[in-house]
Amino acid sequence: MQRTRKLERVSSAFHVENFGCRAARADGEAVAERLRARGLVERGPSAADVVIVNTCSVTAEADRSARAFIRRTHRQNPDARILVTGCYAQRAPAELARMEGVAAVVGNSHKALSPEIAMDLAAGAAPSHFVSLGTLLHQGAEQAAPIWADDHFAHSFLEEAELVPGSQTRPNLKIQEGCGNRCTFCVIPQTRGRSRSLAADSVLAQVRSFVAAGGNELVLSGINLGRWGRDLPAAEGGTRSLAKLVRQIFAETSLPRLRLSSIEPMDWDADLQAVIRDHAGGRLARHAHLPLQSGSDAVLRRMHRRYRPWHYEKKVSELLDAFGPDLTLGADVMVGFPGETDQEFEETCRLIRDLPFGYLHVFPFSARPGTRGWAMHAETPVPPKVAAERHAALVTLGCDKTLVHRRRFLGRVLSAVTLNTSERLSAAGRTSALTDNFLPVEIAGVVEANRLTDVAITSIGADGALTACAAL
Q1: Quick one: what percent of the chain has pLDDT higher than 70?
Q2: Using CA atoms, how far apart are residues 183 and 372, in angstroms rounded to an integer?
Q3: Kind and range of the H or E element at 389?
Q4: Among residues 290, 216, 296, 303, which one has the least CA distance to residue 253?
Q5: Is residue 294 classed as helix, strand or coil in its secondary structure?
Q6: Cα–Cα distance for residue pair 104/256, rounded to 1 Å
Q7: Do 18 and 133 share a domain, yes or no?
Q8: For 140-144, 181-185, 424-428, which range has the lowest pLDDT when averaged over its residues?
Q9: Looking at 262, 285, 308, which one is the last position of a domain?
Q10: Distance (Å, whole) CA 224 – CA 218
């Protein structure tokens, strides 16, 4: 019986559809790697036996996108068994469990169980060998899918999957989960719980495994990455911190390049800046992403953010000193937060104009149930038309900043890693690559993915697209 079951699983196919941030994508990559290791093959959603929908819930639009994908997948592939996981699955599991085609809902609290549940679904079996540690919700609907979700987050880390440079040349290693900042607009504390860190030994084992598999660039990610280590027992020599972990990675592994994903402004502390000075432009990518959200003091206070505009400006100055002038600086910016006035919006625009951003991620405020922002939005909403106008204005400003930043590198030689290139681009004799300071480029010639190479920037298009050739 066991032998027959194994053969069934080997012939099964899966698809993982990721929504949301780098940390969420890291979860999805880990699930996919676990399934590949168990013999499942990866196919598109229309040909898969099990489809894992790794959801985001940071905005109402993210929720809508996930629901639309579930409906479309069920329509195109009615035999597929759909497993929904991620933040939306944690926030509103019963809502998803009642959707047609959904076979299981696994919240972030139980995400580590999702590969095994997916294996059973792919084989056509009910995941009955698991005792649901969460609440099995039917809510009066006989056909509701089983749910694994609670508020303990005891099974939230996916740390056993091996990281390899495959479909993602630069995979994300998620080393931190959850957040305790309690910003008024954010649902993350509800959907991912308190801050938790992956043990340093596990991080180092993952990095060594990635290097052994031939990997060249690895991205450290987390929901609140700068808080890594603060919940772990103190190590010999003092408390654990992200700066100490990065030094340990450089000292104890041969990883060619490490990139840090988004870190809150005040977590780029003096120790981390010292690490940057020692390694930026070599083994540490010259790229920093500092969430801004607003350039208005009053709005930041209403958001319950832990810095002010002058703090942010000072941190940018410190990072430019640590990384050097070739740093590419990025930020998230929100428009339309409840009560945002024209003057407060202009304060945000002024701050952005004054700082050397290489790119912006601009998004409108979205009221999330269960947050303080939900009630604030009910009391002092920004009209949708005004929010849309502000969004368009900041997108235009962000594009202008990107163009100015990228023009600085015309004629320069930069280190880059080659990426998986589309068939269209390969047919045109070009290769996608990303420089160490986060500039996407197209290299003349066809080069295999996962190669570190020096490139000379030769031209820039009106849209900011960079072209390059191999440096001599």
Answers
A1: 90
A2: 8
A3: helix 384-407
A4: 216
A5: coil
A6: 40
A7: yes
A8: 140-144
A9: 285
A10: 18
* Average pLDDT of the segment spanning 415-441: 94
Residue in 360, 362, 351 with CA at minimum distance from that of residue 389:
362
How high is the pLDDT of residue 71?
97
**363 occurs within a structural domain:** no
DSSP-based three-state secondary structure for 472? coil
pLDDT at 214 over 70: yes
Alpha carbons 440 and 238: distance in angstroms, whole number: 39
Structure tokens at 329: 């600086």
Helix (H), strand (E) at residue 274 = helix 270-279
Same domain, 275 and 185: yes
Question: What one-character DSSP code corresponds to residue 14?
Answer: E
Per-residue confidence (pLDDT) for residue 166, from 0 to 100: 63
The pLDDT tens digits for 183-212 are 999 998 888 888 999 999 999 999 999 999
Q: And the tokens for 66? A: 């996930």
Helix (H) or strand (E) holding 84: strand 81-86
Amino acid (one-letter) located at 12: S
The residue out of 123, 148, 173 marking a domain boundary is 148
Burial of 336 (0-12, 13-18, 19+ CB in 10 A): buried
β-pairing, 257-260 vs 287-289, is unpaired
Instruction: Tell me if 172 is assigned to some domain.
Output: yes
Distance CA 109, CA 101 (A): 22
Q: Sign of dihedral through CA atoms 190, 192, 193, 194?
A: negative
- Looking at residue 432, which CATH number applies to its domain? 2.40.50.140
The verdict on 129 and 234 lying in the same domain is: no
Kindly state the tokens that stand for 138: 């039917």
Q: What is the pLDDT of residues 268-295, one digit of tens each?
A: 999 999 999 999 999 999 999 999 999 9
- Determine the Cα–Cα distance for residues 345 and 356; give it in Å rounded to an integer: 19
Cα–Cα distance for residue pair 82/71, rounded to 1 Å: 10
Angle between helices 242-252 and 200-212 (to 10 degrees): 40
H or E element, residue 245 = helix 242-252
What is the pTM assigned to this prediction?
A: 0.87
Rg value, the chain, Cα? 23
Phi, psi of 429 (to 5 degrees): 75, 35
Average model confidence (pLDDT) for the chain?
89
The answer on 77 and 173 residing in a single domain is: no
